[in-house]
Amino acid sequence: MIGVGKIKQYSNVLDKPLSRGKQEVSLSAFAFLFSELVQYNQTQVDNIAELERRLEDAGYAVGARVLELLCHRDKGNRRETRLLGILSFVHSTVWKVLFGKVADSLEKGTEHEDEYMISEKELLVNRFISIPKDMGTFNCGAFVAGIVRGVLDGAGFPAVVTAHFVPMEGQQRPRTTILIKFAEEVLRREARFS
Amino acid sequence: MGSTACFIIVSRNDIPIYEAELGSALKKEESAHQHQFILHAALDVVQDLAWTTSALFLKAVDRFNDLVVSVYVTAGHTRLMLLHDSRNDDGIRSFFQEVHELYIKILLNPLYLPGSRITSSHFNTKVRALARKYL
Predict the structure, then answer these.
(1) How far is B133 from chain A (nearest CA, A)?
(2) Do the chains contact at A68 and B74, CB–CB below 8 Å?
(3) Is residue A21 assigned to a domain?
(4) Does some domain include residue A9?
(5) Using one digit for the tens of pLDDT, what is the confidence trace for B14-33?
(6) ipTM computed for the complex
(7) Can you tell me the distance from the alpha carbon of B92 to that of B101, in angstroms, rounded to the nearest whole number?
(8) Which in A41, A55, A133, A153 has the greatest CB count within 10 A?
């Protein structure tokens, strides 16, 4: 086996120390795994909305765990209690750990008070994916939207999170925007605090 | 005469996912119910208090006779609550931090559904060992 040397053998995962998180995963390995995930879910559903929901649920499980782990490991044990705090946590820390860079931009929606957008020129998960015309507005970034929803939900900021393609002039591939719409109670609580 | 201590982990949806009587005092059957009742009653106070601070350790949030409830809230709003009669703040803080690490390891298991009961006997053993060490 590669790399087995004098590694200490632990009898139970609870005894192993939490890793410091400097490991990187090969992009191609992840791309193959993600493509299998999408293909497997495609065989299980009849329509696009259901497929998007399944990818989102898969991401939700990741988000819930990422929140706890990153708070403990990277944030020096502090919780986020304010809206802007948790948004910048998602935009910088979560993105940096998951995709190797901070998200391209974080904007507040102009039409509605409760909408925020995280934009990315090209989502890592969509790098090797092109959507056929007959699938309409389907976006595999629904997986990332699920991750964001998992993080926000876990921290106590329930929201509806969706991924959209936004065509840009002068560029072949459209930009991806993760749209976050917070629930009523979040805005009420924020108003109470500020 | 030892110390009484009752420890529960309550998930985000207010469902207890782990319970343990950790005190070194003699087991008294009726006080176990009372301990659980006191801890559940303190949940309301914790809910309000959790949103006022970004710290994880909330120290003592509620009192009952000579018993004190101390709470530690994780980032995912899972509450680690300890009912005890001692005043050992530092020991309690270290206990909470170690249990928090154990909880994260359990949570990272993809086969563990967040919010469900923690059934691992190894986890139980480790929590009791930590209690003997810090409390």
Answers:
(1) 16
(2) yes
(3) no
(4) no
(5) 899 999 988 776 666 667 78
(6) 0.88
(7) 14
(8) A55
